[in-house]
Design brief:
The chain is α/β, with parallel strands linked by helices and about 425 residues long. Helices cover about 50% and strands about 15% of the residues.
Length: about 425
Amino acid sequence: MRMQVEPVAEAVVMEVEDQVTATGTAPLVDRDLVAQLVGDAQRLGLSVEGEGGLLAQLTKLVLESALEGEMTAHLGYEAGAEPPAEQTNRRNGVATKRVKGSDGEVPLSVPRDRAGSFEPELVKKGQTRIDGVDDKIIGLYAAGLSVRDIQAHLEDLYGLRVSADLISRVTDAVLDEVREWQHRALDRMYPIVIFDALRVKIRDADSRMVKNKAVYIALGVTRDGDREVLGLWIADNEGAKFWLSVMNELRNRGVQDILIAVVDGLKGFPEAITAAFPETMVQTCIVHLIRHSMNFCSWKDRKAVAADLRPIYEAPTAEEAARQLDAFEDKWGGKYPSIAPAWRRAWAEVTPFYAFSAAIRKIIYTTNAVESLNRVLRKTLKTKGSFPTEEAATKLIFLAIRNFEKGGRAVREWVAARNQLAIMFAGRFDA
């Protein structure tokens, strides 16, 4: 007769059996053995749940066994066996760490190798929890929730009480991922790179005053039409020196050519990109230019002004665009004298637009590639009044970017644009 199993253990056994039924895999856990273990624990006064309980001890044994298996796969020989004669890397004892789970802290012995090349997958280096709480915290943080909101959310939904310090440590681990991401190798050539900026409030470390700082983002479109955020930079002031450092960073990470750089009047940018990528065509972002124009007119006239700007950027040639700009100024120059001059000041960076086909114009004008990213960023940042540090802002923006790239990166109708670019930039597109 099978021994009575405590409810928690029963649930564990049933879960395993359900998985076996669903997958058709032979059972790895003997139900009677589990019942015996629970019964023995009860007789010894050992609880099933909680720190030091039966489940915690079983978790320790299973994890350590799995980690030893990972080390065996890494080195190619079993523990206690002789390593191949030609192999210099060997087992090198264990390191101890404590990880937190739903049943309290579990002490683990993690095997080491002499070369230090072993990277465990089951319990990664730096990982402090094994119950998925870290992922929950990261997900909530990426959604823009404050530390207090995360604490309340975890307690309400999961009954988990976590400290602000734990949340900080978990999210700080993201910074290592940010550094790796910011220094990763890039493609040799990008057909289009859109440089954009957004403003965030960050507390200055010296004055302790909250300041508006610019976060600059470079969004590249690859040869295959995928959107890829190349990097992000936070700066107090833009200028040629700053942008040259950004361009040199891109070059040092492998970028040798950019065909078209789309930019919105960033100070010092043309000089910097010309110095680093002399063949790059600089194109003013038409959307930003339209939005800038809207800032000069009243709400009641915005629809009419926007309609009269359309013939300018939809003109088939630069000559026709100039004629339409004159017509716009004749109509609106008296009431809104600043709009037409703003277009004329940017005209040298506007006119390349008219050499492109409709397929390429659509990518540059509508800026769907960057606008969808901006929507994700704005949604994430809207709950934040200000950030205590630049690192805090970087963490959240990076996580938002990561979520954006998970959602699909392909640029719509890329095939037609690609064919046009391959002809227009013959020798560079396929280099």
